[in-house]
Write a structure and sequence with these properties.
CATH architecture of the largest domain: 2-Layer Sandwich
Number of strands: 20
CATH superfamily of the largest domain: Threonyl-trna Synthetase, Chain A, domain 2
CATH topology of the largest domain: Threonyl-tRNA Synthetase, Chain A, domain 2
Strand order of the largest sheet: 2-3-7-6-5-8
Number of domains: 3
Largest sheet: 6 strands, antiparallel, barrel
Helix content: 25-40%
Order of helices and strands: EEEEEEEEHEEHEHEEEEHHEHEEHEEH
Length: 399
């Protein structure tokens, strides 16, 4: 079993060891050492990177026997003495995220009764999945602020972080937040006086080294509540990005950041009113245009005018225009509106005195062209390539 040096000192960045095994594998070479400070992927925390002599460490894993395996880009000789160097910025970032996970989980448990069941630290955002009372999968802004305030108050007080392997008797007496998932070599992490749980990860010596913890979002995930967060330099970078974004937006709108939300809300209301007016004008213009087309449109043998036309608007306008046209006698309306990428939405309708099944017409025209549609004898709707409209017009002329 590999001696794991990070258990005793998470700040150890260089160490000496002996190669006990090296074998080629996909992507490089699998190297086992007698001792290692490299953290292997486990418990939701990613592996460390760094070097062993001149070989780069690309991945680290641990097997069932407790041996740590290092994926390197160059071979090492069995029995060779090697000097390992840990990528410290990556290690410390993971230490900050993992400690933040504990502190958020503790606050959720103490304040809201949530039980954390999983951690994932990615390259930018970390997440924890939480089983909440009564199956709740989302909490509101007030509860999020309560959790954040609780965590950051402990960060500011710089509460101590202690990691150790208690003996079985001590372990039984410890007030753990949740039972350990292993029965042997149980390692405990305690943060302050109100967070204590089994964990094999790396953590800072004090909570103050987290700097800042920010919850980015809460959303349902697989029946649980997923909390996204950042800590340390990640939190600083997030704040910087939000600061820049807010100030750039405020400058574009010629307002102060304090007034940004109100300014955007006012713009949304103005845009809503403008869109309503635009839609009204589009409707009026479309109806005028279609009314004029009735007089010159080609006719069916029975005298009904056939209007085949693409409108500038949406499906609501198409339905409204078709309904308006067929109020008068002797009209067949084949109308569409652009839906993007060469496709359209269609409404085929006819006046009550016209003997033509619109649902069947639309279906017959749409099917060969990969579209869909159908409906009643007097009114049908569908969608697909723009050519459907003109194929339906052709079918009427040839009938």
């Amino acid at each position: 079993m590999t001696e794991r040096l990070y258990y005793d000192d998470a700040y150890l960045t260089e160490f000496d060891a002996v190669v006990t095994e090296c074998a080629p594998c996909e992507g490089g070479f699998q190297v086992r050492l007698d001792r290692s400070a490299f953290y292997p992927t486990s418990g939701g925390q990613p592996y460390d990177t760094g070097t062993l002599n001149e070989a780069n460490v690309l991945d680290v894993n641990v097997d069932e026997d407790g041996d740590v395996w290092h994926l390197t880009d160059a071979p090492l000789t069995v029995g060779e003495a090697v000097h390992g160097r840990i990528d410290w910025p990556r290690r410390f970032d993971h230490m900050q995220q993992h400690a933040a996970d504990h502190m958020i989980a503790s606050a959720l448990w103490r304040l809201l009764g949530g039980v954390t069941i999983g951690l994932h630290i990615s390259g930018d955002v970390s997440t924890i999945d939480v089983a909440m009372p009564e199956g709740v999968t989302r909490i509101g802004p007030e509860d999020i602020r309560r959790v954040e305030a609780d965590v950051n108050a402990r960060v500011q007080r710089d509460v101590p972080v202690r990691c150790w392997f208690p003996d079985p008797d001590e372990l039984k007496a410890l007030p753990l937040r949740k039972p350990p998932t292993v029965s042997e070599h149980v390692r405990i992490v305690a943060i302050g006086e109100d967070e204590m749980v089994a964990c094999g990860g790396t953590h800072p010596a004090t909570a103050g080294q987290l700097g800042l913890v920010k919850i980015l979002g809460v959303a349902p995930a697989r029946g649980k509540m997923r909390v996204s967060f950042v800590a340390g330099m990640r939190a600083l970078r997030d704040y910087q990005a939000m600061y820049d974004c807010a100030h750039e937006a405020a400058a574009l709108l010629s307002t102060a950041t304090d007034n940004l939300a109100a300014h955007v809300a006012a713009m949304q209301e103005a845009l809503k009113a403008a869109n309503l007016e635009l839609n009204r004008l589009r409707r009026e213009n479309a109806l005028r245009e279609l009314e004029a087309m009735v007089e010159t449109a080609p006719r069916m043998p029975g005298g009904a005018a056939v209007i085949a036309h693409m409108l500038t608007g949406d499906a609501n306008l198409v339905r409204d225009a078709a309904s308006h046209l067929i109020k008068r006698p002797g009209v067949v309306a084949l109308l569409g509106a652009d839906a993007g990428e060469g496709r359209a939405v269609f409404v085929f309708a006819r006046s009550a005195d016209v003997d033509l099944h619109m649902g069947r017409l639309l279906s017959d025209a749409a099917r060969p062209l990969g579209g869909k549609g159908g409906g009643r004898p007097d009114f049908a709707q569908g969608g697909g390539p723009v050519e459907i409209l003109y194929d339906a017009e052709r079918r009427i002329k040839e009938s």
